[in-house]
Each structure stands twice: as C-alpha cells, then as structure tokens.
Amino acid sequence: MLSRIKAFFKYIKDNRFDRSLMKYFDWPLFIIVLVISLFGVVCIFSATSSQVVEQPANVIEMLETQSITYPRLQLLWIGAGLIAMSFIIFFPYQLYERYANTIYAAQIVLLTLTLLLARAGRGGMTAFFNWGSDRGFQPSEVCKIAIIIALSKAFCVRTKPIMTIHDIIPLTIYVGIPIVLVVAQPDFGTALVYVAVFSVMVFVSGTNSKLIWGVLGVMVLLLIPLWYFMNNSGSDNFRFTRILMWLNPEAYPDEARQIINGQIAIGSGGVFGKGIVSPGSFASLGYISDDHTDFIFAIVCESFGLVGGAALVLAYVLLIARLIILAVRTEDPYGSYLIVGVMAMILFHVVENIGMVIGLLPVTGIPLPFVSYGGSNMLTSMMGIGLVLNVVMRSRQHEQRQHTATERVLSLKRD
C-alpha cells in the first residue's frame, strides 16, 4: 500500500500541471457554459421573486425590492463549480484512467453509505446528506462522473466492439451495480442518467445494431415489473401517479398542478415574455412548485418568451455539438469516451428536463444543467466540463509535440 501511495505522488509530480497547457484551453466550450450558467442565475432570480403590483422600473429597483438569496447562492455554487473544474483539469486525465477501478469502488462505497441515511423526503428517499434545515448534498450526482471515468476505461481497453450478448453482460453488471444502489434510494431519475451514459457509450463503441435492439427489447420487458413495483410499493405511489399524470394531467388536477401551471406559464410568456419580476406572473405567485429547480424552464419561457426559451435550447445545441466535435477530434480512445460520457449526461438532462416541463416526458425530478438551482448538479456538470477541457488541452498539446517532432525529423532528412 505504501509503495502505491508513493507511486501515486510520483506520478503527480512527474505530470504536474504545465502552464503552457492554457494555450490549448477550449474557450468556446467554456464561454458557452459560463453564459448558460449566468443566464440561469437571472432565471432563478425571476423564479424566486415575490408578487408586485407593477414591474420595477430598472435593475436597481428589482434588487432593492426582491430577495437575492437564491441567486447569490447559485453564484457561489458556480464559483465552487469553477474551482472543482480547475481541480479536475489540474491532474492529467490519464491519472483518472489509471485509478478508474479505485474510483468505481469508491462510488459503490459512497452509494452504499447513502442507503444507511434516515429516509426523508417524498417517497422515503435517502439520496441526500443533509445539514442544516434546507441544505443537502446528493452523492449520486457526483457519482455520475465516477461512472463516466470507470466506463470509459472499460470500453477503451476492449480490442473489438461488443458483438454478442456474452460481451455485453459483464459491462451491464458493471454499470448495473451502482444503478441498483441508486434505484434503492430510490432515485429513478438519476438511475436513468446512468443508463443513458452507458447506452450512448455502447452505441459509439461500434456495437452490432441487432444487439442494441435486443437489449432495448429486454429493457422494455423489465419495465413491466418496475411498473408493478411503483404501483404496489409501500410508499405513496407518487412515481406511478406521475406516469398517469403525464398521460392525462387533466384527470389529476391536484397532483398535476405543477405540470398544468408550468405549461400555462410557458404559453403566457408569448413571443418575448413578460419580463423579470412581472405583475401576476406564475413565478411571483408561487403557482409552480420547484420553479427554481426542476421546472426552471417554465420560468425561462414565462419571463423571456419563445425567444428566450429557443435561445436557451440553441445554447444547449451548441454545447452538445461542441462536445461531439471535440470527441471526434480526440485521437486517444479513453479521452474520447470521457467526452462522450459527459455529452450523454448533459444531453439526457436537457432532453428529459425540457421534455417533462412541456409535457412530452414524465416528471422525474431531473434538473436543467447549469440553469436549475442546486449545488450538487452544478458541481457535477462543471466537473464534467472540466474532464472535457482536461482531455482537449492535453490531447492538443500531445498532438502539437508530435507534429513538431515530425517536422524536425523531416527537416533533418532534407538537410
């Protein structure tokens, strides 16, 4: 054990952060993330505003008459996320590959410890380490980064694509253990993120298409006992009710009030929106529960209208497109899988969150990355972007050194 610790610190010393890496920093990706995050602070301010008789005349009046508690805390979380991003960038991503199995084991331990917590919250969840009256940390969020690191190594060490059931079973068990622990909390929304990351990695690995359709068929069949569990569990069955609300929200006017009011708020925003802190807005009247977290997109559309909602979606499209481009350009298989994993995580969050708010998908409690209020998801998302920047910077530096060395050799040959 002592020799391993010495080897660990020696590796870090030999591969310490080089300031010249900043030449290869991907500013477009960073700027997109920062713009979305700051826009999210404005949306949280609007979502947590109190009722007004007339709209404030200027920004100063808004700040003087409205609470800035949640926006201020979100700014702190953004700062903490940037620190976490810097920490992830500081160490070479090859270090995460070397200790991927240790990171995987650590997440299993952390998720297991989470199950020992006192059950609290809707459905008897044990998903949070709580402190104070309304502060908490969700371990399963950060464990998304751990599973991306672990799965990236599991896929990149393969010498050939997954072509048979025999090939996919070990990987399914590998990712299935943390998924089962997350479902046991129970947190089905986060478990679906794990499934999405795994599914996208299987797809990009060049798997036989027939095998993919077969696995999807098995997953559909597994939904039957899951449906039964949600309908007959000892909790208040709100997960099963969420499915029914999604299919027919008008039949559940009380339970589906969040969904119905969210869609009304989206429509009431019109083309250009009502503006921030507007009289009679659903945000200020508190008609939408969790409007600063899971249902923040409804406030985006109410405050900034169709234009604002479309602009945010466009920003996410640019973010996902940038991640795909970077993944394709990265020659190192492990680094490419890391970027693909982060892309899959963010993409699923965006599609599921916006889909559930506008009524296309069931409500699962999935936050909107960089926009929804909350520290756990902000840290996780920023750490994911940190992984991507880490891969890009070091890959570009390696490619540049190889290019320089090749030109030097060719120059010597010409001489």
Into which percent range does the helicity of residues fall?
A: 55-70%
N/C terminus separation = 52 Å
The mean pLDDT is 85
What pattern of helices and strands is seen along the backbone? HHHHHHEEHHHHHHHHHH
The count of strands amounts to 2
Number of helices: 16
In angstroms, what is the radius of gyration? Answer: 23 Å
Q: How many domains would you count in the coordinates?
A: 1
Class by SSE composition: mainly alpha
The side-by-side strand order for the widest beta sheet comes to 1-2
Q: Which word captures the global form?
A: globular
Low-confidence stretches: none
The main β sheet shows up as: 2 strands, antiparallel
Give the amount of beta strand, in percent: under 5%
Description:
Helices cover 69% and strands 1% of the residues. It contains 16 helices and 2 strands. It has one domain. The mean pLDDT is 85. It has helices at 2-14, 27-47, 59-65, 69-90, 93-98, 100-115, 139-156, 165-183, 188-204, 209-232, 238-247, 257-268, 282-285, 296-329, 333-357, 375-414; strands spanning 129-131, 135-137. It has 415 residues and is mainly α. The chain has a two-stranded antiparallel ribbon with strand order 1-2.
